[in-house]
Structure formats: structure tokens, C-alpha cells
Amino acid sequence: MIHVSQVIKYYNGLKALENVSFHVREGEIFGLLGPNGAGKTTLVGILTTEIKPTRGTARIKGIDVVNDPLAVKHLIGVVPQHRSLDRKLTARENMLVMARAYGVKNPRSRVEQLFSLVGLGDRAESGIREYSGGMLQKLLVARALIHDPAILFLDEPTLGLDPQARIAIWEEILRLKDEGKTMILTTHYMEEADRLCDRVAIMNQGKIVNEGTPENLKKEGITSSVVTFELKEVSKEVMDEIVKFEEVEEVKVIEKDFMELHVYTHYAKEIIPQIMEIILKKGLRVHGLHSREPTLEDVFINLTGGRLK
Amino acid sequence: MNPQRAKGSFNAAVAILRRDMYVFCKEIGGNLLRIIGEPLFFLFVFGVLLPNLNLFQAGYIEILVPGIISMSTMTGSMRGVAAGIGLSFEYNEEIRAHILTPISMRTLALEKVICGTFQGIVSGTIVLALALVIFPGKFSFSPLFYFELLLIFIASGLTFASLGLALGSSFIPETMFEVLFIIMMPMMFFGATFYPLSLLPEVHPAFFYLTLFIPLTYISEGIRAILTPQIAFLPAIYCFIGIGVYFLIFFSLGVWAFKRRAIK
Question: At A223, is the secondary structure helix, strand, or coil?
């Protein structure tokens, strides 16, 4: 459905994308996960014909995005990061302009249909300025669907939304997946990628550093569980003793409200009492203890050495 | 371009033009003030007040009115497009949604120019109507005159809206006031607006040649050729050729700048 091959993009001599290649299958949600500045929006911009690549090719349903942008625009719908809704028009007028621009037959009925689909029917006559963040995002989704495109690009669709609005958008995205839409979703929320995406490409500094299903990425990246001990302080002696256990793969200390001692192991149940004994012997107090499966964030930290912010 | 794509691009342009016209009509009060405020003051001071104080010779109104009309077609078309494009790229961002529709960037640029041209025509027509009311009997019209005036309003609108497109796509809104000032001031005062070109060659030959490089000169003289042929210097056909050359230059520049801004 979407093929990106060896795409490079320079902005004023600075490399924004470096040899990016991937493909997206029909009907799947493909996530581009990475911190701000990773190159996600640039990549989406190239696929939506708003940005020209310096080198490389990108094809949507076999159509080159540079050579035939008008044909591509008919195939895709875009929920952009920029809030490009027309503030001089009401929500309904915004939708009607787009419906006419895409040559939709019976634009008024299509607009009504989409308003009821995203639950904004009672606010259709309101001005854009009166909309909340969540409502604006829903309207952008409805606008992207105006010509019933086969492919949707969602660029940080839940950025800045409260949890309730975020869940509403997630539900909408999953409903669109059930309808058979192919989607490319950019996000820097791990949970979002984990919950929505069939496959994820992790981006950092303009490159794809790994790609796969969230489950496989977690398995490939870190095969163990993560046991976290929350302590007031951690001494080198304690860490040295913990590392000596054969069952322990790696130990990391992350400074938060407490010092968090992250122990990566396949044998959490067996190792926890022994580590507790070492900590208590050194006279340290444990303020919290929990064990969890690895997340995409652990995978990201493992791949890039940094956190997703 | 493939005919199907061309049709899609045309449909999108019509939809966006319809939107732009709707917004223009919705904000008609502010738009009229912007369009006719300045020419109205010029008409009043130079056309009514100063002649009544006997500071200007009789017959100055016939020289002044074509100049003020030409100026209003320029400001009406250029300012609206330059400010609209600049603000839309920088703040409102609705133009980003238009760029995503199945429209070619050249067609979208042309749509903005057509919208600006419309504003220039409205502006010129209103100032013409005001001049006819304020100075009754000074100008006589035939239906052919109206047709010729419409042609020259269209030519002026297309040219200066194209210049507005180039400026709006090249400068940020924060500097737009200064840019418009630098471009418009020489145009307003050296574009044969307040004096007829016919008097210059003998009095200020150097200034005469400078005036020939100002695009507004061809509009002012073109309108004079229609309204007051006795004081016009350039025949209407020369005016159309002159403004046509400027249109080609400004439109090419405008489309280039717009494409560069729209597609990174």
C-alpha cells in the first residue's frame, strides 16, 4: 500500500531524514514512534506531498508522491499536527468547503453523516473558536474522512488532549481500522503506539532504529521483566552485589522522586527476596517495589539510550 | 496535466474561491473601510477641499480622479492578498488545508490572484461611483467606457494581486506593513496618480522615464485614456501592453514564491 525507499531530506544542509525505508500493508495501523525532532512529521509531510524529499522515493498505491501529487491527494486523508481549521467559518462551513474541494457528490449529506459519526452533530453551527481541543481533533478526523480516503495519516492525533478526549480519539481510530482504513500514526506516546498499532517503526534523529509489531519489539529488545525498587539512595556496593547474581541481566538507576533501581531479569520471583535481603542488610529502606513486563519505552531506551519526551 | 487531475484541481479552486468570496462578504464592513478609506480621503482633500480653497487650478479633478481610481484598484487587490496569504501561512493555517486538497499549487496561486482581482474591481468601482456622485457632470460615460474600465480594472487587479501573492508568500506578517509601505509609496506618488504623464517630458524628463518604470503609471494613464482622453499621454493599447508585461513578471514571481512557501 505504502512504500518508502531510501528517503533522505535535508533542510538548509541539516539532515532531517536519513535513508528511511519501510512499507505499510493494506488495512494496518503503522506507527511512527519517536521523540520530538525524530523526523516523524517530516516523513508524513513527504507522504502527504507537503514536503519534497531530497532523495529517495515514496509511493502510495504505486503512485509516486513527487511525480503525481494530485492523484495521491485523492487517496489520502490527513489529520495534521497543525490546526488548519478555518477560524472564519463554522464547523459545518469548514466541512462543506473541503467536501466541495474534493468533488464529493451530495456534500451536505456527507457532512451530516460525518458529524453524526464523530458525535459533533449538535455543534455543527458553532465557530471553530468555540471548540475544545478534543472537539477540534474530532473535527479534523471528520474532515480527513470527507472524501472517504483509503489511507489516513494521523500526525500526533492526541497531542495535548486530556485522557478522556484521548480515549475518544483512540476509539475513533480503532473504528476506522475496523472499516478497513490503512493508517499511519505518528506519536510520542508509548501507550498509544502499543495500544493502536499493528506495527511500529521507532525513529530517532531522522533514522528508523527498529521496526516490528509492538510485541516483537518488546521481545527482541528486552526479553526480561523489569523489577523496580524505590529507594532513598543507592550505593555502588549494593549495585555491585546485585549484578553478581546470574539471574540478573542488567541494573539501571533512574532518578525520579526516589532513586529507582531497575533490575532486568527473567526470574523476578526468585530474585526479589535475595535483592531485598542485600538492600536491608545495607540499612537502606525500600519505599516501593513493583515488577512489570517491558514496555515500548524500555525498548526505546534500550535502542537510543534516551527517554521519549 | 492529465484531464481528470485538471478537472479535480479546477473543482478545488472553485470551492476555495467560493470560500474566499464568502469570507470577503462576511467581513464586508472592515473590507470596505480598508479598500475605500484611503482613496476617499484623497478625493475629499485633493478634489474638494483644496480646489474650494482655490489652491488648485480648475480641471485638476479630471486629472486626479483617474489616478485615485487606479490607486484604489492597486491597494484593493494587493493588500488583501499579501496580508491574507502572510497571515494564513504564519498564523491561521487554513491555507495548509487548502494545500492538502487535490489542487495544483499553480492553480491555488491563481485562485488567490483571482480573489484579489475581485477585490481590486470592487474597490475601483466603488471609488468611481463615489467620484461620479461627488463631482457630477465632470465625466461622461457610454456603455463602451464601462466595458473598457472593467478591462483595465481586471488588468490592474491581476497585476497587483500577483504582486501581493509574491509579497505575502515571501515575507512574514510582522514585516508586511514596512514591505507594503516601501512598495506602495513610490507607486502611489510616482505612478502618474496626482499628475498627468503628458506634462512631465518637458518639465522633468528624468522623472518622466522613472515614471514609465512604475506599473501603476499604466493603470492611471489607461483610466485617463478612457475618462479624460484630452489629458492622457499614453494610448490605451500601450497601457494594456505595459501592464500585461508587469502581470507576467509579477505572476511568475508570485507563483514561484507561493510554491516555495507551500511545499517545503
Answer: coil
| pTM to 2 decimal places | 0.83
Give me the domain span that covers residue B158: 3-262
Residue A26 sits at the chain B interface (C-beta within 8 Å)? no
Q: Mapping DSSP to helix (H, G, I), strand (E, B) and coil, where does residue A268 land?
A: helix
DSSP string, A127-160: BGGG--HHHHHHHHHHHHTTT--SEEEEESTTTT
pLDDT at B156 over 90: yes
**Overall number of domains in chain B:** 1
What domains are there in chain A, each with its CATH number?
2-213 (3.40.50.300), 223-293 (3.30.70.100)
Q: Do B19 and A70 touch (CB under 8 A)?
A: no
- Distance between CA atoms of residues A170 and A158, nearest Å: 8
The CA distances from residue B88 to A77, A84, A117, B82, B262, in Å, are 21, 9, 29, 10, 11
Q: Do B263 and A74 touch (CB under 8 A)?
A: no
For the segment A139-167, the average pLDDT, to the nearest whole number, is 88
Closest CA to B131 of B47, B56, B196: B47
pLDDT number for residue A47: 96
CB of B70 within 8 Å of a chain A CB? The answer is no
Q: pLDDT tens digit string along A173-208?
A: 998 899 899 999 998 888 888 889 999 999 988 999
B178 close contact with A: CB closer than 8 A: no
